[in-house]
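[job 0412] stage=complex_fold ligand=acetyl coenzyme *A status=START
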Amino acid sequence: MTIRSVILGCGGYLPERVVGNQELAERLDTSDDWISQRTGIRQRHIAADGQLTSDLAVIAAQRAIEHAGIGVDEIDLVVVATATPDNTFPATATRVQARLGMKRGAAFDVQAVCSGFIYGLSVADNFIKAGQAKTVLVIGAETFSRILDWEDRQTCVLFGDGAGAVVLRAEDTQSQGILSTHIHSDGTLYDLLYVDGGPSSTGTAGHLRMEGKEVFRHAVHRLSEVVVEALAAHQLTPRDIDWLVPHQANLRIIEGVGRKLALPAERVVVTVDRHANTSAASIPLALAEAVHDGRIKRGEMILLEALGGGLTWGAALIRW
Ligand code: ACO
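[job 0412] stage=complex_fold status=DONE, emitting structure tokens
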């Protein structure tokens, strides 16, 4: 018997308000040219006043549940990957659990910033393989607009808000599901990308700070490494990959990993131009887009990868 986590359904949600580069250029010393050439970003979605991370998460989750064709009563576990929870505690996942109308199961958050969705998927996959859960909802949801320093042109132009979700189900199969997940961190690189606040340090939420160039350098190196590790674990080569669904931080990083795998550009799912970097939400949003528009089909091999604050990074291989 081989128990695998099969993705039954996925869904995404983006807030209505769209902010283009030009709008930012009107209030900051930046330009559409600089942002689009250095990052590939043209616009981002920003949550409305009072719209919380859990609000985005619930809509993405409802869409994933509907796509999966299951009832909420079947869900054993809710994992929300977020670095922007509604409150310091309880976990945003518990609010999502209540809002979905779940009366049973467990719910908690996972915090690995932009790698959060891969970490959440890894946790869920291990719960399923250990037999502790049969059906798991994994959500990546963020409102990074709330932790940006809107005066800092080096960071505020890079991020957006959104949520994406998948429903995993334990199935006895060798032909489908998550093959493996690979997660890493290096805490000595904490100061390269962090928020300068928090309940135990300043008592305030704080703002995102980043050494962009250094993070970029580590991203290309670490992502290439973890992609090789994931493929080697299954004696696969880059030619076996049908789709790369990367974390959407910067088009240049995405293209760098795509080149490393010698994947044609049309086999790489890109949303960074329209969504910007939505941290833990970026991969499930990109996945949902490519599944719902018919690009990703059953039986295809999907590679996910991400790097974020910590630094944390990881990859997952999935037979769709
Ligand atoms: N508009 C105009 N000019 C700008 C802007 C801006 N928005 N931001 C920076 N500049 C200027 C800088 O001041 C600098 O000017 P100088 O040469 O006069 O000093 C110049 O542009 C070049 O700046 P760099 O920082 O060297 O630009 P770079 O090409 O490295 O691009 C970027 C910066 C986009 C941040 C890139 O380094 C990057 O994408 N880094 C990785 C980000 C990432 O992957 N994060 C990980 C995930 S995020 C998470 O986990 C939350």
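DSSP finds ten helices and 13 strands in the chain.
[job 0412] exit 0
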